[in-house]
């Protein structure tokens, strides 16, 4: 039995969870074993229609009066208890911060091995042969994962999301874990949302990134305008975030968001490896940079050599004329 942990927002599964779900379903099919999902939160029961499109037969809904807010140890412990109860052989999760945190806690409780950010996974001789990302994707590792129970996460934006031809009608089974006070040492009790509107970076089809070359917070207006004209979202390099020009949520890279847009327009960004691992999922990269020797020029599909303060407004005018 493969058990897929699903993250969701008010009953709507995250894109990364659907990627991981597709990976889990393929894995279950290749092993000829069952496939079920597990989700937390009051609204999880509402996931059934959506999960049915991905071939889920059963949804385990974890019920506990203190589990509504995120609590990493308690969620991991619940996952471990459910795994024992249904005798799951593998737990999968999206390769997100939360997916990794929950799997790590569940793995510690189950004393089971964990492989994160998997790109390919194949059952072989009672174990898994894996290809996985290390160092944010700048290194690829071939490894073998063995254990009575194993845990794997799917690298973000690396697995296609595929619906099944005939949707299933998942049965919802409630699971009430037995938890103690010590499992709630860390618990989210309040969530503050930012005022930002628009598409989240990880899901945007167009991303306009600004780096140190932008020169200051006010000059992001031109990038915002470009993003608006193209129905996209603005991101930033770590240098721009460290300068305090943009919030950390906007950071793209190893220690930020992983993006996979149709086009990434990188303005005033040098193309450091730690930045590029966040945007290697982009279909196309257009770099705007004054330096022909900048690393990003080599890595981009298209490049404009010039000052972004001239190029971006001209681009905005040209797009406006076309619309
Ligand atoms: P710079 O490297 O200073 O480049 C600025 C670029 O702008 C230059 O290429 C310059 O030619 C160009 N430019 C200047 N003026 C203009 C102009 N007027 N018009 C057009 N172009 C212009 N970085 C990330 O981005 N994301 C991460 O997640 C991340 N994680 C990291 C993790 C670790 C452990 C470490 C050590 C580093 C990490 N970094 C990360 C930092 C990374 O190494 C780089 O320092 C950073 O990406 C550089 O940002 P930048 O390209 O904006 O700045």
Automatic annotation (TrEMBL):
The Electron transfer flavoprotein alpha/beta-subunit N-terminal domain, residue ranges: 2-188
Record key words, sorted: Electron transport, FAD, Flavoprotein, Transport
UniProt xrefs under InterPro entries: DHS-like_NAD/FAD-binding_dom, ETF_a/b_N, ETF_a/FixB, ETF_asu_C, ETF_asu_C_CS, Rossmann-like_a/b/a_fold
Presence of the UniProt keyword Transport in the record: yes
Stored SMART domains: ETF (SM00893)
Family annotation (PROSITE patterns): ETF_ALPHA (PS00696)
Keyword Electron transport: yes
Pfam families the record matches: ETF, ETF_alpha
One of the GO BP terms on file: fatty acid beta-oxidation using acyl-CoA dehydrogenase
GO MF term (any one): flavin adenine dinucleotide binding
Family the entry assigns: Belongs to the ETF alpha-subunit/FixB family.
Protein name stated in the entry: Electron transfer flavoprotein alpha subunit apoprotein
């Amino acid at each position: 039995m493969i058990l897929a942990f699903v993250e969701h927002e008010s009953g709507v599964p995250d894109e990364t969870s659907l990627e991981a779900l597709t990976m889990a379903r393929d894995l279950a099919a290749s092993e000829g074993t069952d496939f079920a999902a597990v989700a937390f939160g009051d609204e999880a029961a509402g996931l059934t229609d959506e999960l049915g499109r991905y071939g889920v037969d059963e949804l385990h809904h974890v019920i506990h009066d203190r589990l509504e807010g995120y609590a990493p140890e308690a969620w991991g412990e619940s996952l471990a208890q459910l795994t024992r109860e249904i005798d799951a052989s593998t737990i999968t999760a999206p390769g997100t911060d939360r997916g990794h945190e929950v799997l790590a806690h569940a793995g510690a409780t189950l004393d089971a091995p964990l492989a994160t950010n998997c790109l390919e996974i194949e059952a072989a001789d009672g174990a898994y042969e894996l290809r996985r990302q290390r160092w944010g994707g700048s290194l690829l590792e071939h490894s073998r994962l063995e254990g009575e129970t194993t845990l794997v996460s799917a690298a973000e934006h690396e697995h296609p999301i595929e619906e099944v031809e005939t949707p299933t009608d998942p049965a919802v089974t409630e699971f009430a874990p037995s938890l103690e006070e010590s499992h709630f040492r860390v618990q989210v009790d309040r969530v503050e949302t930012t005022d930002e509107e628009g598409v989240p970076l990880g899901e945007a089809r167009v991303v306009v990134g600004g780096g140190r070359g932008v020169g200051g917070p006010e000059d992001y207006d031109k990038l915002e305008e470009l993003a608006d004209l193209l129905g996209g979202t603005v991101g930033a390099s770590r240098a721009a975030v460290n300068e305090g020009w943009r919030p950390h949520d906007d950071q793209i890279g190893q220690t930020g968001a992983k993006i996979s847009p149709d086009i990434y327009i990188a303005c005033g960004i040098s193309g450091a490896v730690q930045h590029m691992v966040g945007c290697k999922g982009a279909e196309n990269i257009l770099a705007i940079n004054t330096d022909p020797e900048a690393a990003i020029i080599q890595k981009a599909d298209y490049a404009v050599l010039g000052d972004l303060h001239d190029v971006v407004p001209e681009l905005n005018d040209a797009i406006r004329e076309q619309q």
